[in-house]
Design brief:
Its main location: membrane. InterPro entries: AAA+_ATPase, ABC_carbohydrate_import_ATPase, ABC_transporter-like_ATP-bd, ABC_transporter-like_CS, P-loop_NTPase. Pfam families: ABC_tran. It is a peripheral membrane protein. This is Heme ABC exporter, ATP-binding protein CcmA. The strands form six sheets. A six-stranded mixed sheet has the order 6-9-10-3-11-12, with helices on both faces. It is an alpha/beta fold and 535 residues long. Helices cover 34% and strands 23% of the residues. The protein contains 18 helices and 23 strands. A hairpin with a 2-residue loop joins β11 and β12. The protein has three domains: 237 residues, 3-Layer(aba) Sandwich (Rossmann fold); 157 residues, Rossmann fold (3-Layer(aba) Sandwich); 78 residues, no CATH class.
Length: 535
């Protein structure tokens, strides 16, 4: 009887014992020159979704890179299924089912979508790549994330950043996955793509996959996550059920202060056009577009990913060659010769690109080098760069833009994504161009820093600069813009004045070109009356 009782008791004890977490971190820290992560202890179980948030530079990406084998911790330990876990590389972590979709994408632009998806497991036949089999497998993975209308042989470099993000997500859904880390996965996605991603997350959770979801979009975190973990200055300040926190409380935890909910643009004088675009177009990518950008104005461009927004900015900046059309600066009657970015800069046009990693920064170089790159003559003497002058400029912008860094000599590649974005903005502030093109200016920037950027944009407009801003965040455009023009299927289809728009009207215009197949809206190139006038 005693043996039976003991056996039953041991069985009850095993049933009552908590399950071993899939992954446990104890006292994890990372120090470069200074500590960026300190004494973080946290765990996640199979099938659980952990929201991880915090300001830029708080340590989110560093922590996730340690988990996924990209960075080695300075202190602390990790357990996977209760066993010691210390991956020496990303490949080793992936072999154990730990995968990561990074904010900075890990794709090879010269290879096709299909080749990027199955780069390490290309199907072969008689020693050659089995292209039909590869294409079929690629279409299955692409369909899972909504990329059904794209040829799998399209080079990744020809895709927009949003579509590249979906390819990266699709790549990480191949094969065994026990823990998936998503670092700002929706920063460049449309609403439709976000819904597809959430459907995949729900499927993975039902299959027992654990997910660490890193985002600054707090409304998303509450929608998908069970728990919330908040990092501030490299330390874990919250690890709790997410249901007990509203947005204001989470922001307070993240930044140590309450968030601002409104933006005072201040008094501005909107003057004469600084930039006049007339019938500027390029093939089927951008239909002939005409509009004006006025002094002191913030003009937004809304639209779905792939609608031609970025491509239009690149045409204006001379990064791509236009098939037709002209660009006029100020009241000049002769069109500007903008055949390259160098010409554009000389004409007083700056562009903050959406892809800071490959197009916006020299990552191995210092903040000082990156911040002064567009105006080297101001930090050089007799053709020789003055490094002290570079650092002085960098330190000034570090203070003004609240860039989390050691000093102006720190390499841009060592900064968090949001702080890298601030360095790109600093470069063009230093150049002091009257016309500024911003492509996704707050991509990957936390909610506290976003308002710093918004205030900066307002200040630039008060100085009389003209700002043309592409953003996938409609609320952002509605908060900061004087006018919003909408692109759909490569065409400018409508323009709304402040007070005349709503999310519904803007979204209807954004979809119109795809529904009607002819650009929708008010015609091929609907613009306001002022911009319809001849140059």
């Amino acid at each position: 009887m005693s043996n039976e009782f003991n056996a039953a008791h041991e069985s009850d004890m095993r049933a009552a014992a908590p399950a071993v977490p899939l992954l446990s971190l104890t006292g994890v820290g990372k120090t470069y020159v200074e500590p960026v992560l300190s004494d973080v202890s946290i765990s996640i179980s199979a099938g659980q979704i952990l929201a991880l948030t915090g300001e830029n530079g708080a340590g989110k990406s560093t922590l996730s890179k340690i988990v996924c084998g990209l960075v080695q911790a300075t202190t602390g330990s990790m357990l996977l299924d209760g066993q010691a876990y210390q991956p020496a590389s990303r490949k080793e972590a992936e072999q154990l089912g730990i995968r990561m979709v990074m904010q900075e994408l890990n794709l090879i632009p010269t290879l096709s979508i299909a080749e990027n998806l199955f780069l390490n497991q290309l199907p072969q036949r008689f020693g050659w790549i089995d292209k039909p089999k590869l294409a079929a497998a690629a279409r299955v993975q692409m369909a899972a994330v909504g990329l059904t209308d794209i040829d799998p042989w399209t080079p990744v470099g020809e895709l927009g950043v949003g579509h590249q993000q979906m390819v990266e997500i699709a790549r990480n859904l191949i094969g065994s996955c026990r823990l998936l880390v998503l670092d700002e996965p929706t920063a460049m996605l449309t609403n439709r793509e976000v819904e597809l991603l959430f459907a995949q997350i729900a499927r993975l959770q039902s299959e027992g996959v654990a997910i660490i979801y890193i985002s600054h979009r707090l409304e998303e975190l509450k929608r998908v996550a069970d728990r919330i973990a908040v990092l501030r200055d490299g330390q874990l300040v919250c690890d709790d059920a997410i249901g007990g926190y509203n947005t204001e409380a989470l922001v307070q935890l993240m930044v140590g202060r309450a968030a601002e909910s409104e933006l005072d643009l201040g008094h501005r004088n909107i003057g004469a056009p600084l930039l006049r675009v007339r019938n500027l177009g390029r093939g089927a990518v951008v239909a002939p577009a005409s509009f004006d950008l006025r002094a002191g104005e913030i003009l937004g461009i809304a639209g779905l990913i792939g609608s031609g927004r970025t491509e239009l900015l690149r045409l204006i900046f001379g990064a791509d060659r236009a098939d037709q059309g002209e660009v006029f600066i100020g009241d000049q009657t002769k069109a500007a010769n903008i055949s390259s970015p160098k010409n554009a800069i000389a004409s007083g046009i700056a562009m903050i690109t959406e892809d800071r990693k490959s197009q916006g920064l020299l990552l191995p170089q210092s903040i000082g080098v990156n911040a002064t790159l567009a105006k080297l003559s101001s930090v050089s003497k007799f053709g020789v760069l003055d490094q002290q002058a570079e650092v002085a400029v960098a330190d000034d912008y570090i203070k003004r833009l609240r860039i989390r860094s050691r000093d102006g000599t720190q390499a841009a590649g060592e900064l968090s994504g949001g702080n890298q974005q601030k360095v790109v903005i600093a470069r063009w502030l230093y150049r002091d161009c009257p016309i500024m093109l911003f492509d996704e200016p707050t991509r990957g920037i936390d909610i506290g820093a976003k308002f710093d950027i918004y205030k900066l944009l307002a200040e630039l407009s008060r100085q009389g600069k003209g700002l043309l801003i592409v953003s996938s965040d409609l609320r952002e455009l509605m908060l900061i813009c004087d006018r919003i023009t909408v692109m759909s299927a490569g065409k400018l289809v409508d323009t709304f004045e402040r007070g005349q728009w709503s999310q519904e009207t803007i979204l209807a215009a954004a979809f119109s070109g795809y529904v009607n197949g002819n650009g929708g809206g008010n015609g091929d190139t609907a613009t306001d009356p002022a911009s319809a006038q001849a140059a």
